[in-house]
Automatic annotation (TrEMBL):
An individual GO BP term: DNA-templated transcription termination
UniProt xrefs under Pfam families: DUF7218, Rho_N
Region described as Disordered: spans on this chain: 1-82
First and last residue of the signal peptide: none
Record-given protein name: Rho termination factor N-terminal domain-containing protein
Organism of provenance: Stakelama marina
Positions of the Rho termination factor-like N-terminal domain: 46-79
Upper taxonomic lineage: Bacteria, Pseudomonadati, Pseudomonadota, Alphaproteobacteria, Sphingomonadales
Length: 82
């Protein structure tokens, strides 16, 4: 059973899984919260159909570094591989 990390972490199970995989507390929290609010649910929406600004925002929420220098195609690849 996932430990309750308080109201800052919206998806405790995902947070714990990410921490076990070696992610930092900050990155695990960003990913868990982004997944919880639906911004990581890109499987139902084609990333290619999104604007570069939308992709940039998602990359920012999940903590992809170097995103400001990326093209739209690079942002798509980075989000998919994250």
């Amino acid at each position: 059973m996932a430990k309750d990390h308080g109201n800052q972490i919206k998806n405790d199970k995902l947070y714990e899984d990410l921490r076990e995989q070696g992610e930092s507390k900050e990155k695990a929290a960003r990913i868990a919260n982004a997944k919880s609010n639906g911004s990581l649910d890109h499987k139902g929406t084609e990333l290619e159909d999104r604007t570069k600004d939308e992709l940039y925002e998602e990359a920012q929420e999940i903590g992809i570094e170097g995103r400001s220098q990326m093209t739209k195609d690079e942002l798509i690849d980075a989000i998919r591989s994250h």
